[in-house]
Amino acid sequence: MTAPGSGRIEVSDVSISLGRGADTFEAVRELEFSVAPGELVCILGPSGCGKSTLLGALAGHLGISKGKLTVDGEQVSGPSPDRGIVFQQHTLFPWKKVRDNVAFGPKMRGVDKAVRQRAADDILRLVGLAGFESFYPSQLSGGMQQRVEIARVLINQPRVLLMDEPFGALDAQTRAMMHEVLLDIWTRIPTTTVFVTHDIDEALFLADRVIMMSARPGQIIEDIRLPFGRPRHIELVTDMEFVRLKRHFLDLLKKPDRALHCRA
Fold first, then answer.
1. CATH code, 251
2. Residue 3 has what pLDDT?
3. Among 180, 155, 179, which residue's Cα sits nearest to residue 166?
């Protein structure tokens, strides 16, 4: 398993520009925040504000124009199994069974077949898919496929889990179920997690902290530590403080104010 206390993220004065030549534009500007080991942080903001761009940089798929990105003091300079990413779109191999999809990373690292298959079965049990090891992705529901995606990342024991609106394509009922599944997994394997969303309810239900970004170029306009305890259940969405914070974030979406506000 990941070493305790690992997975500290530091984002220091980071700006990212995309495009080339005359088409170049600034996607995010002067981002400054950190994520503690084992913390679950949601990046919230309107579509096009640079949330996914930031996640791509943390994953090592995109370079930054200015500043510094580190995980446990090491500069992010390219992709690594230490920083696993789960996308909204499925990336499972349709011709491989569930167990083989999950075991693919260890296979690429040369792990013995019996060892990697046992590890895959263990992680599938963790995400609630025991008994589905020999199914193909097309035989699973959307929510089950996303569980496989999460398992395929976690088998690599990453220090950081990056999630790019992973439940955005699911229906409301399945999405709510996946929120509880994710929190259950995170409680058992408290991996540092950065979760991108434009859904306020999702951010408030999942996160320890919510970092709110402005419209493009994305800047941090608020960084709030949430007061809700754990474990969390669906009844939380009717809590008075939950409703108040939801209204607060809705108000922020309507305001052009770009000053950073932090609340402990």
1. 3.40.50.300
2. 58
3. 179
173/111 Cα distance (integer angstroms): 38
Q: Tell me, what's the pLDDT at 168?
A: 87
CA-wise closest residue to 4 among 157, 200, 194, 211:
157
- Cβ contact 26:53 at 8 Å: no
Whether the Cβ atoms of residue 2 and residue 71 lie closer than 8 Å to each other: no
Ranges of the chain whose pLDDT falls below 50: 257, 259-264
Which residue's structure tokens are 């579509």?
Answer: 47
Specify the pTM: 0.92
Distance CA 32, CA 9 (A): 11
Q: Which two tokens stand for residue 88?
A: 């909204």
Residue pair 120/152 in contact (Cβ under 8 Å)? The answer is no
- What tokens appear for 156 in the block? 């690599």
Q: Structural domain of residue 192, as residue ranges?
A: 9-82+160-263
Residue where a domain stops, chosen among 131, 157, 183: 157
* DSSP code per residue over 107-120: HHTT--HHHHHHHH
User: Residue 113 has which token pair?
Assistant: 């077949």
Give me the half-sphere count of Cα atoms (radius 13 Å) on the Cβ side of residue 239. 16
